[in-house]
Write a structure and sequence with these properties.
Helices cover 28% and strands 16% of the residues. With 487 residues, the chain is of the alpha/beta class. It folds into four domains: 1-27, no CATH class; 32-67; 149-405, Spore Coat Polysaccharide Biosynthesis Protein SpsA, Chain A; 436-486, no CATH class. The strands form five sheets. The chain has a seven-stranded mixed sheet, with helices on both faces. β15 (305-310) and β16 form a beta hairpin. The chain is extended, with a radius of gyration of 38 Å.
C-alpha cells in the first residue's frame, strides 16, 4: 500500500497514516536524503533559537536559504532585505515633498512589500474620498450604536454686550457647532434691542439662531443679575411655546463649560431630566476675606455639585444642591469686585425639558405645571414641577459631571473695542528693529578699557536720530547703564 500524499511529503518511511514503525528497540528512523537531513538540522537549530529569543524564525530562514530568489528578494547595500514587486503599480507624482516615489519598500509582510507613501498624499481627491468614507463609517456607527431617532437640541442663552461677551458666547457657539444633532439656538439679549455686535458673533456659527431682545437692562449686582437671567430664560421658553419648536430644551449659559457627552445624554430624556453640574466658586476670590481651605473643608460639602441622587434601584431619591454658607462672608455683591460669585439655590443649567411640556398637549404628564400660568418672576426651575420624583436622572444617575458652572466677568466700566475689531492704530511697545543702544558701536565700555566711557546723554542723542523709536524713559536709564557696564 503506497503512502498518501500527506504522508508522502514527509521524509520518513511508514504506513499510510504517516506514523513511524516501532520495533523492540524503539523508534527507527529510515535513511534520510541529504536535503532532508539538512532541512532537519536547520529546522532544529531554528527551533532552539526560537525558544531562546521568543520569536519564530524558521520560516524566515527557509525563505532566505531555500526559497527561490527569483522574484524579488535581494539585499541592499545597507544590509536590509527588500522585496520588489515584479509589476509595481504606477503612482502619479503631484509635486509632493518626498520627490520621486520608489516602488520598493523596506516593510515586509509575508512575501509582499508595502509601499510607504510620503505625506501629504499626492492626490488630494483620494484624501477627500478617504475623509468621506470615514464620515460615512461614523454615521453608520452612530446609527447602529447611538441614538436611533435623535431630536433637535433647543439651546436657550441669555446675553448682553460687555467685555467678556465675545469670549463666553464664542465658547457656547463652538460647543453647539460640534454637536452632531440639529440645533436651534435661542439667544435672548438684554438692553431693549438686538445689537449688531451680538448678531455679528451669531452669524459666524451658521446655526439656526433666533436672536430676540429683552426689554430690561442687565443689573450690575449679582443677586439681581441672577433674577434677570431667569426672566430672560422664561422669555426664551415663551418663544418655544409660541413657535411650537419640537426638541430637547437645554439652558446653556454663556460662561458655563459643556461636555460633548451632555448632548448625547439629553437625547434619552422623555419629559424632564436633571444632570450633575460642577460648581466652580474659587476662581474669583483671592483676597484676605476669602475662606481658607480649612474653613471650606469644615463647612462646605466634599463635592461642590448640583445634580440628582439615586437609590439602589436607580430611581431618583432627591437633588443635591450647592451650600453657599461657607462662602457667604466672601461673596461678591457687584459684578467685577473681588470675591466669590455664588450660584443660585438651583441653577437652570442642570435641567433639561421636552419642548412639548410647554405646548400643553393632551399627552403632557400631570406632574408638570401649566407654563401659561407661571409668572415671569419665577427664579427657581423647580417651580415648573408639582413633584420631583418624576424627574429623570442623567449621566448614570448623576455620577457623571456633564457641565461646569463658572462666572468670570470684568468690571462694568472696563474698556474694550466694539466687536473686538481694532480700527485705530495701536501704540508700538516692542519695536521690530533693534534699538540703537544695543548696537556694538554704541555699547558702553568699562573705564580704562578700550574707548572712553560715553555718558547716558549719548543714548538720548542717538535715540533722537530715529524718529520711529520713543524717547528713553528716565526710570530705565539706570537699567541701561548697568547693561552697558556688563557689555
Amino acid at each position: 500500500m503506497k503512502p498518501t500524499n500527506a504522508a508522502g511529503r514527509r521524509s520518513f518511511r511508514g504506513g499510510g497514516d504517516g506514523s513511524i514503525p516501532a520495533t523492540e528497540s524503539g523508534f527507527v528512523f529510515a535513511k534520510l536524503s541529504p536535503a532532508a537531513a539538512f532541512f532537519l538540522l536547520v529546522h532544529g537549530a531554528c527551533c532552539a533559537a526560537s525558544l531562546a529569543i521568543g520569536f519564530r524564525i524558521s520560516r524566515f530562514l527557509f525563505l532566505l536559504l531555500i526559497a527561490s530568489p527569483n522574484p524579488s528578494l535581494r539585499r541592499e547595500s545597507g544590509g536590509d532585505f527588500v522585496l520588489k514587486s515584479s509589476n509595481p503599480a504606477p503612482i502619479a507624482d503631484s509635486g509632493h515633498r518626498g520627490g520621486e516615489i520608489s516602488s520598493r519598500s523596506r516593510v515586509v509582510v509575508g512575501r509582499h512589500g508595502i509601499l510607504i507613501r510620503p505625506w501629504p498624499h499626492p492626490d488630494p481627491e483620494q484624501v477627500l474620498a478617504a475623509y468621506r468614507i470615514l464620515a460615512r463609517v461614523q454615521d453608520e456607527q452612530r446609527f447602529r450604536y447611538g441614538v436611533r431617532n435623535p431630536r433637535r437640541v433647543i439651546a436657550v442663552t441669555p446675553t448682553h454686550v460687555r467685555t467678556f461677551q465675545a469670549l463666553h458666547l464664542s465658547g457656547v457657539m463652538h460647543s453647539l457647532m460640534a454637536t452632531p444633532y440639529e440645533v436651534t439656538w435661542i439667544v435672548v439679549e438684554a438692553g431693549g434691542a438686538a445689537t449688531e455686535e451680538t448678531a455679528a458673533l451669531l452669524r459666524r456659527s451658521n446655526l439656526d439662531v433666533v436672536h430676540v431682545p429683552f426689554p430690561e437692562a442687565m443689573p450690575s449686582e449679582w443677586p439681581e443679575r441672577h433674577r434677570a437671567e431667569s426672566r430672560m430664560r422664561i422669555h426664551g421658553l415663551r418663544i418655544i411655546r409660541e413657535r411650537k419648536l419640537d426638541g430637547i430644551v437645554v439652558f446653556m449659559d454663556e460662561s458655563n463649560v459643556h461636555g460633548a457627552e451632555m448632548f448625547d445624554e439629553i437625547q434619552a430624556v422623555k419629559w424632564a431630566g436633571a444632570m450633575s453640574m460642577g460648581i466652580l466658586v474659587h476662581a474669583g476670590c483671592t483676597g484676605p476675606t476669602c475662606p481658607t481651605d480649612a474653613e471650606i473643608r469644615e463647612g462646605a460639602p466634599a463635592m461642590p455639585i448640583q445634580g440628582p441622587l439615586c437609590d439602589a434601584a436607580g430611581n431618583l431619591d432627591g437633588l443635591h444642591g450647592f451650600d453657599p454658607r461657607p462662602y457667604a462672608a466672601a461673596a461678591a455683591v457687584y459684578v467685577g469686585e473681588q470675591g466669590v460669585v455664588l450660584p443660585q439655590a438651583m441653577e437652570w443649567a442642570g435641567f433639561v425639558l421636552n419642548s412639548r411640556l410647554l405646548w400643553r398637549d393632551p399627552g403632557t404628564p400631570d406632574w408638570v405645571k401649566d407654563f401659561a400660568k407661571l409668572t415671569k418672576n419665577m427664579v427657581n426651575p423647580l417651580d415648573l414641577f408639582h413633584r420631583l420624583s418624576s424627574l429623570e436622572p442623567l449621566g448614570d444617575c448623576g455620577s457623571k459631571v456633564l457641565l461646569w458652572w463658572l462666572r468670570a466677568e470684568a468690571r462694568p466700566d472696563s474698556r474694550f473695542p466694539p466687536g473686538w475689531k481694532i480700527d485705530a492704530p495701536l501704540e508700538v511697545t516692542v519695536p521690530a528693529k533693534p534699538t540703537p543702544w544695543l548696537k556694538p558701536a554704541h555699547r558702553r565700555q568699562e573705564p580704562g578699557k578700550g574707548k572712553p566711557t560715553r555718558g547716558l546723554s549719548h543714548l538720548e542723542e542717538e535715540n533722537s536720530k530715529y524718529g520711529k523709536y520713543p524717547k528713553i524713559n528716565k526710570k530705565y536709564l539706570h537699567v541701561l547703564q548697568r547693561a552697558g557696564n556688563t557689555n
